[in-house]
Recover the amino acids of this structure.
């Protein structure tokens, strides 16, 4: 093994290998970059901070929901309750995130914890109840929507306005709102003052939660389960623990999505069609991000990229003068075409039996 | 002798059906106790009430029948909502004697397209049918301008969905006819056996000479046809087609199939179970509405019932190798 790596330049070969193994992921990054660059060229106010902030704001909730979905898809499952859990946590947040600073912080923590707790319940039902994830989360999703309706029968709520302003704008605005770093005028802050806070939140949570987690034994076990649960069991890996973690983290990410949505819209709404749309879009985002629905392939970052691609596509509708009545059709065709890219695999198959997995 | 035959069979595929049928009785009993306590009567057990419930159940029953064919293969058809809506809208737009054939043709086309994507392009059905659903939605919004079409359902559609023969709603006869056809396909034809075989292990079925891709296309066509028929009937029932009319049918249809004992990964399940599952969901909904349960409580009970039913009989084997 060492002889092989020694004979080739190690860094270049590692990157090449990574690209070979994650074609979907790198393809998604290229697609996103191309889509977003062209968008900015066409946009009359392209490459401006305002456009960038507005775009990231609209992408955060879907990005978190897609990351939640990715956790469960990697272990070979599927979570049809992510949209419902997001709705539930946004309703909780719309009740709690206001008042004194400590109340606001507590409200945020409780909302996200409620999401993670619901995910843990999902995991317990699936692991110890031995139910299929698809159908179990279909049912728990209904329970989550029911709880959301209990908390908020009518849309509404008064989320703290300062917080809304601070997290939906640039870092400078955040510092100004809370009088940090000399009201955002500190010299060292200027190079990054334009960065949108929503982007910062996404990157921070991904780096703080997913990056360390995937390097743990539990994180590795997720991939082993997704590739072959039987083999993972025979290797003595902690299967139950890994699945519980996968669903708990899915709930955590869905909770983050709900919290952000509540802060962004300033309110909560137990909207059943919206929950369904987020769940379905999360599956599409996961596929676009190079994660195999069969499990064992892909990363949460891929799902994040996939969600951004979906959002980038929808941004085009605003600047291209497409008849609004045709928008859903174009959206549908783009989605169908994007997921059909996976069919290229069938052209490479040498033995037809490989098709049936 | 009959006992010897039924006892061992009861252990495998019939257990879910027996339990869910028992649960239907429990729902009726609890609902009746509630109405006796509050109203002093038992409207739940009147034939008229039950027939009305079966009439509303007919639409769900037809959708679930088609969905079951696909789930038996280990696939899923998420394009049902807008297939229903598209069929209903096109049927009312065309009107006249061609209305129902037009609606069914939409279902046939969608089914063929779904089957092509899943069987030949090998795209996971969950994502492909989802894409087809959004394309259908886009087509219908472009077609109608986003409003409910003004055309009304033809007399034949209204007759099939809302009229009665000898006091029994015609929709129940349509549901019964669809059920008999699907049950016969599943138990009496080579195609039916091929569905079970392919659902169990596609590679083995392929090697034993079953044209598994045709089987998949066939199952999706049946699912599309059933959804289209349900959509056309639903337009007849409410006298016109409207946006999103099929949205309320997707998840209950999947739930009915699974509660009826069909394995979500395919290969196992009896059709009668799906019928019982549909009746269970319809009665549960109507008893909850008699109790004036708010939407929140309904959703929670609905979810818990599915989980508890599956915990009783839907558990998968423990992974040990």
């Amino acid at each position: 093994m060492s002889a092989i790596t020694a004979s080739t330049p190690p860094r270049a070969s590692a990157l090449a290998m990574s690209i070979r193994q994650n074609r979907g992921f790198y393809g998604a990054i290229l697609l996103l970059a191309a889509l977003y660059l062209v968008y900015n060229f066409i946009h009359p106010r392209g490459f401006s901070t305002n456009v960038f902030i507005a775009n990231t704001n609209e992408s955060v909730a879907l990005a978190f929901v897609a990351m939640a979905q990715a956790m469960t898809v990697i272990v070979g499952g599927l979570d049809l309750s992510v949209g419902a859990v997001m709705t539930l946590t946004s309703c909780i947040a719309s009740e709690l995130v206001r008042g004194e600073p400590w109340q606001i912080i507590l409200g945020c923590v409780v909302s996200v914890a409620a999401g993670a707790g619901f995910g843990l319940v999902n995991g317990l039902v699936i692991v110890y109840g031995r139910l299929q994830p698809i159908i179990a989360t279909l049912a728990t999703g209904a329970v989550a929507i029911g709880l959301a309706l209990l908390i908020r029968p009518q849309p509404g709520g008064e989320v703290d306005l300062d917080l809304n302003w601070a997290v939906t704008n640039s870092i400078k605005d955040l510092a100004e709102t809370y009088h940090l770093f000399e009201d955002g005028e500190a010299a060292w802050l200027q190079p990054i003052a334009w960065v949108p806070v929503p982007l910062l939140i996404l990157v921070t949570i991904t780096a703080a939660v997913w990056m360390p987690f995937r390097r743990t034994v539990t994180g590795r076990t997720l991939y082993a389960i997704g590739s072959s649960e039987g083999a993972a069991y025979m290797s003595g890996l902690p299967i139950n623990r890994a699945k519980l973690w996968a669903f708990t983290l899915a709930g955590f990410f869905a909770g983050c999505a709900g919290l952000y949505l509540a802060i962004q819209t300033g309110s909560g709404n137990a909207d059943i069609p919206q929950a369904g749309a987020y769940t379905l879009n999360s599956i599409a985002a996961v596929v676009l991000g190079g994660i195999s629905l069969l499990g064992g392939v892909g990363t949460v970052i891929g799902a994040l990229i996939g969600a951004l691609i979906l959002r980038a596509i929808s941004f085009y509708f605003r600047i291209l003068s497409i008849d609004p009545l045709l928008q859903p059709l174009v959206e549908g065709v783009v989605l169908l075409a994007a997921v059909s890219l996976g069919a290229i695999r069938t052209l490479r198959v040498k033995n037809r039996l490989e098709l049936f997995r | 002798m009959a006992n010897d035959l039924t006892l061992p069979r009861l252990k495998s595929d019939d257990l879910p059906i027996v339990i869910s049928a028992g649960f239907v009785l429990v729902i009726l009993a609890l609902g009746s106790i509630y109405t006796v306590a509050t109203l002093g009567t038992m409207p739940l057990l009147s034939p008229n009430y039950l027939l009305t419930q079966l009439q509303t159940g007919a639409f769900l029953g037809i959708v679930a029948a088609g969905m079951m064919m696909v789930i038996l293969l280990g696939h899923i058809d998420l394009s049902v909502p807008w297939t229903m809506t598209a069929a209903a809208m096109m049927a009312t737009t065309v009107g006249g004697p061609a209305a129902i054939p037009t609606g069914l043709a939409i279902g046939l086309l969608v089914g063929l397209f779904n089957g092509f994507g899943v069987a030949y392009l090998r795209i996971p059905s969950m994502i492909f049918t989802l894409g087809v659903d959004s394309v259908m939605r886009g087509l219908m919004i472009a077609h109608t301008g986003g409003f409910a079409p003004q055309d009304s359902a033809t007399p034949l559609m209204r007759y099939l969905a809302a009229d009665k023969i000898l006091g029994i709603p015609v929709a129940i006869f349509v549901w019964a006819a669809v059920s008999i056809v699907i049950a016969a396909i599943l138990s009496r034809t080579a195609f039916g056996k091929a569905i079970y075989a392919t659902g169990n292990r596609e590679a083995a079925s392929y090697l034993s000479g079953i044209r598994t891709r045709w089987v998949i296309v066939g199952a999706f066509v049946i699912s599309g046809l059933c959804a289209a028929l349900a959509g056309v009937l639903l337009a007849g029932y409410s006298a016109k087609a409207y946006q999103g009319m099929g949205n309320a049918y997707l998840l209950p249809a999947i739930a009915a199939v699974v509660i009826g004992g069909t394995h979500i990964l395919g290969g196992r399940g009896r059709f009668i179970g799906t019928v019982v599952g549909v009746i269970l969901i319809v009665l549960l909904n109507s008893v909850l509405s008699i109790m004036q349960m708010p939407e929140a409580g309904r959703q929670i009970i609905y979810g818990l019932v599915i989980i508890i039913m599956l915990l009783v009989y839907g558990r998968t084997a423990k992974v040990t190798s």
Observations:
- DSSP finds 13 helices and two strands in chain B.
- The beta strands of chain B are 164-165, 168-169.
- Chain B has a mean pLDDT of 86.
- Residues 79 and 133 of chain B are 4 Å apart (CA to CA).
